[in-house]
Structure formats: structure tokens, C-alpha cells
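Batch manifest, entry 17 of 40.
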Amino acid sequence: MFGDRLAQEIEGWPRVLLQQMSVRTHFHEFVRGMLDTNHVVFFLTTTAFFLFLTVKRLEMRRW
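Output type: C-alpha cells
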């Protein structure tokens, strides 16, 4: 993935930010059997955010 490759190339806080935003990082922990609330909250928040954007987009189409 582009974000993972980019995170390997840079240092400091941008690297941490890209790693925290990476779906692959959070999903990898689930694959390993680690059920951490951080990862659950990440997926729930991401889902809610994109559902919110979808609803807004559909409301714009009505007008």
C-alpha cells in the first residue's frame, strides 16, 4: 500500500500519523488474534465517518 511504503520512508510524527491512519496496521492486530479496543474504535469511527459522508452526499443529490 502507498501509505505503508510512505511511512517507511519518513521519520518522526508524520510516520506515526500515517501508521495510526493505516487500515492494514489495525487489521493486522485482528489477524494475530489481538482484540484491542483501540482497533475496534478505529474501525467503528471510520465506518461512522464514511456513512456520514454517504448520507450527506445522498442528501445533496435530492436537491
